[in-house]
Amino acid sequence: MAKKTKTNSTELVTIHDQKLSRAQGGELHQTAEDGFDVLTTSQGAPVADDQNTLRIGARGPALMEDFHFREKIFHFDHERIPERVVHARGYGAHGFFETYDSLAEYTRADIFQRAGEKTPVFVRFSTVAGNKGSADLARDVRGFAVKMYTKEGNWDLVGNNIPVFFIQDAIKFPDLIHAAKQEPDRAFPQAQTAHDNFWDFIGLTPESMHMVMWIMSDRTIPRSLRFMEGFGVHTFRFINAKDESTFVKFHWKPKLGLQSVAWNEAVKINGADPDYHRRDLWQAIQSGNFPEWELGVQLFDQEFADGFDFDILDPTKIIPEEVLPVRPIGRMVLDRMPDNFFAETEQVAFMTQNVPPGIGFSNDPLLQGRNFSYLDTQLKRLGGPNFTHLPINAPKCPFAHFQQDGHMAMRNPVGRVNYEPNSFGKGPRESPARGYRHFPAEESGQKVQLRPESFADHYSQARQFFISQTPPEQRHIVMALTFELSKVETLAIRERMVSHLLNIDETMATEVAHRLGMQSMPKPAPAAVPTRQDLEPSPALSIVERGPKRFEGRKLGVLVADGVDAKLLKGLTSAVTKEKGLVELIAPKVGGVTVSDGSHIDAHHMIDGGPSVLFDAVALLTSPAAIEDVLKEATARDFVADAFQHCKFIGYDVSALPLLEKAGIAQDLDEGVIALPGEDGLAAFVEELGKLRVWGREPSVKLSSASPPVA
Ligand code: HDD
Questions:
Q1: Is residue 448 a part of any domain in this protein?
Q2: Domain-ending residue, one of 389, 419, 445
Q3: pLDDT (tens digit, 9 = 90+) per residue, 106-156?
Q4: 390 alpha carbon – ligand 1 mean position (Å)
Q5: Can you tell me which atom of ligand 1 is nearest the CA of 372?
Q6: What percent of the chain is helix, strand and coil (3-state, nearest 5)?
């Protein structure tokens, strides 16, 4: 029904008896007759009518005089700020970092001086290529940016969920991003690298081959932001009180283990719930299941750097954990969502150059370029130099300086003196003892524009990554490369990519070529340095090897129907809950079902709204009386068929057997399709779910056996 609106100015409600009351925060609020705060303009003037503009007569023209209307529309018109040029889509949360032990031996950074010290943090996770409104499960690198509000200034560790990068020099960043984002004439594809421009640039940039292996692996389709690693990528420096430097690489490791989804699943999740990652983080934090990561460091000196296989300044290389173990130095817990997305997550300004005393940079040319870009980008996005006045960006430690004025200045120096030195004895002074000291590295040489020869090996670590993967993960890389290159229209670009793959792993390259239907194999790409065959596999690079051992933090989707066995449902729910997993019910109607004991239970989703791609495992708890109705739902069949093809565990009670038949899998039942045990066996069933996927099933549902060689 249309809302009744006032049409005559004589009917306008006048505000009687306006009271001024002191609200909790000590601010003044004007209170309306009915107890609500009075709506005001941003100048504080109370508003009488927020439904109709001021006009001459009910059907006449509007009047410029209506300052409330003009202010409201003006403000609305300016609600958007430029989205980030990369990493536009993101989601943030507050939490804390807790230091395990003093690291004073290596760094004077205040955050690492005292065991048990807690430092507030704000984290923003993101995708890189998509625009702000793109879907969460795009195949993409995830940003992992952490702002630590230390007692000696903010430390921003602006990392990714992949420890290497595409390019070695920041001067190529605009080209990389232009090539990855929508093509400029047609403005698509959105949030996808599966197009000509991206693979054209990549094929002409052999230094990206190691990163290509990572982005074609399941790392770029994480199941949850909570199940991803994070990396500082570059080599940084720890600097101690004696100004001695130790090189350091940073790693974040999720407590709940690593987990990704299948590509076919990602595609469907994007349709079913484009905010899948946001919702997951929101639900976890709101329900008190606070996600946690350990911060680890690889520490090394110049001697190690000189003896290492690759240049430690090259951001396309890792130092395998098996060569140099990661030492845990603290943990980060995310325990609070922002009060307002825009004020915090959108306006947070991360900058690689935000480092406190005790943390310094290496000469990594990508890092050096980043140190320029981030400050510059914040000026554009946030519209002026005073973005540090925003609460999310302000340090939480005392600070004092003479910067003043500019757009939106909220904190100018007080009093007469706004310069240093001054003879009035006022204001802050520099402190050689406490202040930031750059590491006095000795540098000399000619001014050149030159890539070091030590950066020239582009294939050896790509090969090492590939051979470190388990067979299902290697299959996924082949499938991802095939998918992406199948979207490339220019044949020469596909061929060029295969020529690079030949330098990484011949079987993989041949398999991709075969799946693309290529008629002949190209020659291997000319390599500046031949691929080393002696690098050992590094199991730490595999997601499956780093998977969880338990179902904790995961979700079971239970398809229920009227008459579902009450004891079984209760037993299953409590077994999953005991493992710290979650259960959601999917039913023909979201209104719920009547359980065998006569009670009623609400569902979380109707079948169409809760496809199995949203869950880590599923159970089918129907009933002999209701199974016929369930069989009529086409999406119930998809629910089961998808769970099977995505290699998930499927628990069922016997009444659901016809559903397995309808999904066409009754003949293929394997160890992952499990008749639910009696109540006693449910704990064991849920323990089994901790394996997450039945990878042995995959070859029969996804890939035919090894391909014949391409000529
Ligand atoms: Fe960057 C944002 C991570 C290379 C220039 N970058 C941005 C964000 C992350 C990264 C996580 C989003 C921060 C947030 O959530 O607000 N970027 C990386 C990593 C890189 C990298 C791990 C390589 C190791 N970036 C890189 C280069 C340049 C930039 C080489 C430019 C020379 N990045 C930017 C930027 C952004 C940005 C344009 C856009 C929005 C912003 O900074 O705040 O300045």
A1: no
A2: 389
A3: 999 999 999 999 999 999 999 999 999 999 999 999 999 999 999 999 999
A4: 20
A5: 32
A6: 30, 15, 50
